[in-house]
Amino acid sequence: MAYIKTIEITGLFGEKTIKWNLFEDVNILGGKNGSGKSTIFRLCYTLLKNNVIKEIQDRYLFDLATRVDIMFSNGWKYTWTKLTDAPRNIDDIKGQYSGMVFLDNSKTINQQAFIYDDKGEVHNDMVVSSIVDVSYLNSFDQFVATAKNLKDSTTERFDNPTMLDMMIQDQIIARNSYFFNTIAKHMGNTEEDIAVREAYNESKKAFEDVIDTFLPGYNQYSPETFEFIKKDSNIKFENLSSGEKQILWLLLTIFNQQKKQTVLFMDEPDLSMHIDWKEMLISKLHQMNPNMQLIVSTHAPSLITGWIDKVQEVEQITI
């Protein structure tokens, strides 16, 4: 696995070019409203996660840049170039627009990216997940889930779920699955079994300590369902405040990484957070997984406490 070394976006909003050299551990991007922070994050995440930008589904992104280049620490490179003149048939694509798929039935174009290895060889059939594990949190994604989201969901417990509720549920399922699989495979008394159990218990204890740090008002919670108890009330996680749910998702996501090398984009995570949370957020997340590359956008000075040397403004990375 690798981390992101450089992000270059050409033709952002049709006028400017971004070149952002990133640190291996923590990166904080500032800038005025409308400067492009969220667009940069969304473009990069969509390409890294899906390996494609679809003309119809991702229409908003499709029109906001002409080229995206992402360079990785292992020498690999990921490139997407916007198709400006739509070909009339599949023969027009060959030799000109490699890395794209033209769908005759819907007359839309799904533009896939090139993936180059460290020797410059192209790998059109490779997905980016083989290079980097990537996650994304957007504080604006609090809308009610669509019918498709509900259909694809593994749970029917919600009444009116937001996307964040479903993201949390996915992480809870992943956490429980990892726990039971780990315990089931290492029930013996070999040195390996004991070491695996001890490592898991250590990470579990660290996770619970961080939960208590951010959510101290609750007496306890169920580690299987994450139903919280406050005095005599049982509170399901979907009934927590938006800030508490964001914290819970972040902590679950990082716990499930089990200190693996990964990249986490966070677009203004401070919007629903108390100032005390902002001041310790990055440090606590980085402590949970020191192998994680954090890429954060923010307007909050308190969020960058102790990390001022990791801050860049959009204007500074615009060329």
Topology:
Elements: E1 4-12, E2 16-21, E3 26-30, H1 37-50, E4 52-54, H2 59-62, E5 67-72, E6 77-81, H3 90-93, E7 100-103, E8 108-112, E9 114-116, E10 134-138, H4 147-152, H5 163-185, H6 191-214, E11 220-221, E12 228-230, E13 233-235, H7 242-257, E14 262-267, H8 275-288, E15 292-297, E16 311-313
Parallel strand pairs: 3-15, 3-16, 10-14, 14-15
Antiparallel strand pairs: 1-2, 1-5, 4-8, 5-6, 6-9, 7-8, 11-12, 12-13
Structure overview:
- The protein is α/β, with parallel strands linked by helices.
- The chain has 8 helices and 16 strands.
- It has a 5-stranded antiparallel sheet, covered by helices on one side. It has a 5-stranded parallel sheet with strand order 10-14-15-3-16, sandwiched between helices. The chain has a 3-stranded antiparallel sheet with strand order 4-8-7.
- Strand 12 (228-230) and strand 13 form a beta hairpin.
- Helix 5 (163-185) runs parallel beside helix 7 (242-257).
- The longest helix has 24 residues, at 191-214.
- The chain is globular, with a radius of gyration of 21 Å.
- It starts with a strand and ends in a 6-residue tail after the last strand.
- The model is unreliable at 86-105 and 142-151 (pLDDT under 50).
Structural class: alpha/beta
Global shape: globular
Give, in spatial order, the strands making up the sheet with the most strands.
2-1-5-6-9
Please report the total strand number as a whole number: 16
The total count of helices amounts to 8
> If you compute it from the alpha carbons, what radius of gyration comes out, rounded to the nearest whole angstrom?
21 Å
Main beta-sheet annotation? 5 strands, antiparallel
> Roughly how many Å apart are the termini?
29 Å
